[in-house]
Design brief:
about 220 residues; mainly beta
């Protein structure tokens, strides 16, 4: 009887395009960035009027500073709480593409013929909403290769299954769209984010839409 041997599956060939995108994103250090961030959040529960809040803050390459809340200077306790909360969070920006695309991205093409990288489960700390829900988030990353600079123009992150929070809250859907542009030095940067969530807290259904724009200061 002949022995049957199963050869190990060949490792997928390296994708030089993906490697180029990841390397260029990783080269943009948060310390080299400075920007102002303006956020507007609209929350609507099944009953009751919608609630809207606005916030402006700045990143100077070292730390965040809370500038205003609903058009007014923040109270010192609120500014201190904001500094503490943001000190442990990743700085948003194009550089984070490097980590998100380093988790088994597969290459596809969309209906417009554009290159799209898909990640079925994002790596740890990619998305935190009360807790780290990255493992339950998938990502689609659209690449612009038409110009001299190759970069991701948009990332769309989607919740793949509901997430519960300590039995009192549940997220049924999350869609986060991040748009990237080139600055005057042909360097990609995060220009805007739209985050849409739907779920329930203490049995009450509701939705939240957050829109954030970024103005580069250097």
């Amino acid at each position: 009887m002949l022995a049957l041997f199963t050869l190990p599956a060949a490792a997928p060939a390296p994708d030089p395009l993906l490697g180029q995108i990841v390397s260029s994103a990783r080269a943009i250090a948060p310390a080299s960035l400075a920007f102002e961030r303006q956020s507007r959040t609209l929350t609507q529960q099944a009953s009751g009027p919608p609630e809207s809040h606005q916030r402006v803050d700045r990143w100077d390459g070292r730390a965040f500073t809370l500038v205003s809340v609903d058009g007014k200077p923040p109270a010192e306790k609120d500014a201190a709480a904001f500094r503490k909360a943001t000190a442990s969070r990743p700085v948003p920006g194009y550089h984070r593409i490097a980590d998100m695309l380093g988790a088994g991205a597969t290459r596809r093409s969309d209906a417009q013929g554009r290159i799209v990288y898909h990640v079925s489960s994002l790596p740890k700390d990619s998305v935190r909403l009360g807790k780290d829900i990255s493992a339950n988030m998938a990502g689609e990353f659209i690449v612009d290769g038409s110009g001299a600079q190759l970069y991701v123009t948009q990332a769309r992150l989607t919740l793949t299954k509901p997430v519960s929070f300590f039995m009192v809250a549940k997220l049924d859907s999350v869609v986060i769209t991040l748009d990237y542009k080139l600055d005057g030095n042909n360097r990609p940067y995060l220009a805007s984010t739209v985050q849409m969530m739907a779920g329930a807290q203490f049995g009450k259904q509701g939705t939240t839409r957050s829109e954030t724009s970024y103005t580069m200061l250097r």
